[in-house]
Specification:
Layout: E1 29-41, E2 51-53, E3 55-68, E4 71-89, E5 92-113, E6 117-138, E7 147-170, E8 175-186, E9 192-193, E10 197-198, E11 203-217
Antiparallel strand pairs: 1-3, 1-11, 2-4, 3-4, 4-5, 5-6, 6-7, 7-8, 8-11, 9-10
Length: 221
């Protein structure tokens, strides 16, 4: 009598095992990122300022396409606070708040790229707009009382360059934690922006950010 072979249950592959994180670069993985952080302006832009703050919040979005383990190309959009400036002169008191918004083309090189941990060097080139919000009072003579005012103005774009070091740790097959440390420079105007306030001029900024990335394949295997 021939006995039937016992049923052997086959377990599904463990997608959380290290092998479950392997990328197929022939499928052109695309990574979409969103990050939040801080930005600090290096050096003073206004020598005659009564008070100057050089930091602000920042946020950024990016998309990077990889075709080889060592390289990726992408686009970035970021918005950074450049701080506040207060100036006092006679009856004139002005508080200016500056921000910068940039659109960038970026390239990444990966000295270390594993199944779960990536270390990358990020270079980018782009165009940057500056924006000022001004609030205060203006008065020319003693006979003429100071008048309150508020205004805002955009200017640019100016040329920008940047470099960054980054880490990405994959929490799942498609989701990763991302952190970056950026050094950027932008050539912005220091002339008067319309009738509102003086521009901030060329700036260099150091920023740090953390966020999440979602990665998916864009080409059939």
């Amino acid at each position: 009598m021939i006995e039937a072979a016992p049923n052997v249950a086959t377990e599904p592959p463990d997608v959380d095992s290290p092998s479950g994180f392997a990328r197929d670069f022939r499928a052109l993985p695309l990574s979409l990122e969103a990050r939040l952080g801080f930005n600090t302006r290096l050096g003073s832009s206004f020598d005659d300022a009564t008070q100057e703050e050089r930091w602000g919040a920042s946020y950024a979005f990016a998309a990077y396409l990889a075709w080889r383990p060592e390289f990726a190309l992408g686009l970035e959009l970021d918005h950074s606070g450049l701080g506040r400036v207060r100036a006092l002169s006679g009856q004139t008191s002005i508080d200016n708040e500056y921000t910068a918004t940039g659109a960038w083309i970026g390239a990444r090189a990966f000295p270390i790229r594993g199944e779960r941990l990536d270390f990358f060097v990020n270079l980018r080139i782009g165009l940057v707009l500056q924006h000022v919000n001004a609030l205060g009072t203006r008065g020319d003579t003693i006979e003429r009382p100071a008048q309150s005012f508020s205004c805002s103005e955009w200017d640019g774009p100016g040329f920008g360059l940047g470099g960054a070091l980054g880490l990405a740790y994959r929490l799942g097959r498609h989701v990763a934690f991302v952190s970056r440390l950026d050094l950027s420079g932008a050539r912005l105007s220091g002339e008067s922006l319309g009738t509102c306030a003086d521009g901030i001029g060329s700036v260099a900024s150091l920023s740090g950010s953390v966020g999440l990335a979602f990665e998916f394949e864009t080409a059939p295997k």
